[in-house]
Amino acid sequence: MSDGALTFLAFLMSLVGMGTLALSIEAHWRQVMGNRVRPARSRRRLRLAGAALLAIAFLPCAAADPVSMAALVWPMLLTVAAATVAASLTLHARFAVSPNRD
Amino acid sequence: MRETFRLSMAYLHTWLGLILGFVLMVVFFFGSLSVFDREIDRWSVPETRAEAAPFPSFDRDVRPVIAQVRPDPHSVEHTAAEVIGTLPAAEDMKASDMGVYTNHRDPLVRMYVAFDVPNKPRDPLLDHVHVYGYASIDPQTGERLPPDLQDRLALGTGFFFPLHYMLHLEWKNLGYWIVGLAGMGMLVALVTGVVMHRKIFREFFTFRPGKGRLRSTLDLHNMTGVLALPFLFLISLSGLLIFAYMYFPSPTALMNPLMEVQEAADAERTGLAAEPSGRPGGLASVDAMMQDARARWAANGVPGEVGEVYIAHLGDADSYVSISRDTVDRVATGETLHFSAATGELIYEDPPASAVEAVDGFLYGLHFQFFRHWPLRWLLFIGGLMGCACIATGFLFFVEKRKRKHAETSIPGARIVDALAVASVSGMLVATCAMLLANRLLPIDLAGHDVWQMRVFWFAWLFSLLHAAIRSPRVAVGGTSPAWRDQCWMIAGLALAAVLANWATTGDHLLSTVGMGYWPVAGVDLVLLAGAGAAALAAYRLGRRAAMTSHTLKASPETASIGRQAHV
Asked: Would you call B369 an interface residue with chain A, using a CB distance cutoff of 8 Å?
């Protein structure tokens, strides 16, 4: 895999990881899943899975670049992934949920 | 002291942010632009729009230029003020040290030559006083750039980059000190911000634009601050460390004698003479030394282009040549081999970095960003802009929170802060876009071409402040200043005009630059267009909201008055 593809893979993993972390937060779960009941203990599991994905996302970064560079690419990818998740949650609240509210 | 620790931290955060936020806005915005300084240079000096090229032959192309370089009049003037007595004539000054450098993004090789002066410095701690001369070489042809082109103001490295660390305030290094204070303030603001934030994890991803202005502004302020926290912290810290020698001058002041001893010990250990011997010496083939260096780097399995050639004590028997690698593959810079100038033999090789040096090199390198990694470059650019968004929303929150109360009690605070915020957020963008436009439209043969661009920048900024002040009365009654919307339209117009002017004056329109894959110019144009689009959208929505507010106020004057009475 090319370095660019590896970096993109790391970004996708960060995106899914951040999304999973967001689902572990009560307000966002309700926002995305509606009134669907959340299984017991899922909060902890979602949080662990999300954190694990974010940690593993360092591996493709380290495969693409020397470790010192990866140490910079990885946190920056996490930041942008978190901002992307936050933006999509905001847009979701705006366009997808509003019909239910009325 | 406030009632609780959290409240006292909130108090510190608010007032420190208010005072230093204006400086931080400038530092973060022009710092973000500096991530692409070389690219902005290409855009603003179209004659240099060429592909980056590797270091040319030193013996054939660079060496003949050394003898041609003469002391720069500005440098002579600067040094004359620093020394006792009058300087010798420029023709009589002797070149002592010189550096020639380029990197993987530069289509130019730049060089400086340091000339010795016999005068004693006024400040006894200033141990090396020199006068400098400059030249640039086109590595493709090996020819020296004509003087007018070499001295032309390149907006990236020549204006925006220094603006972000010294604000172009040279008097007594005042700009460096203000930026240093602001950087320190940024660290304090980050720590106090974390302390005062009640729901860091619960509101990690939260932005609620529909929940009222106050809430949504704070959401955006918190989100940009928290998500970019590692970046914001490291970039502020590393920026402070770069100028730490200036803020904490003890090594060059109080402990100067110790430093001189250390310098001598280093010279003894490495074999690299700190002072010239006074005996004449020659200069062997530097190309051969570069060849040797490239072979050693290849043997280590690292990318091996030459980034800088430095020659100490030119023409002396103890002269040496230091060849540094263009460290495209890592964050830390400075991997250097030192050769004897006379024989061309390797004298000393920089040892692997110690733990402290490695951390220092990483922090320094993450701020200077000499590496070749375009995704990372964009990520750092985005990080910088998130810092800008955090600071700007901090101002907005300050105003939003107070403007009703200030309106009722006739305090001008919110109005003044709002006008200053307009000038330092949208006004800064107006000034930047106006400067880019002026860069393309002012005729090249105009006397003071560079100075006029700077004048356009500063006057556009001053204009934006006046405009913000004139348009601010609505804030005094608890409304939104129409200056935000006006200036967003100005940004959109100026940015679009800059792209069109680039096309008109150079013929490089986006279809051709993207088609050829010439990204330095295409990238600047695309960011300008994206900025114009975002500014136009913001202006449109601000306008729509203003229309809606005035409509509701007119339609139901009673509810409005009821609302106001309740507050009193």
From this structure: no
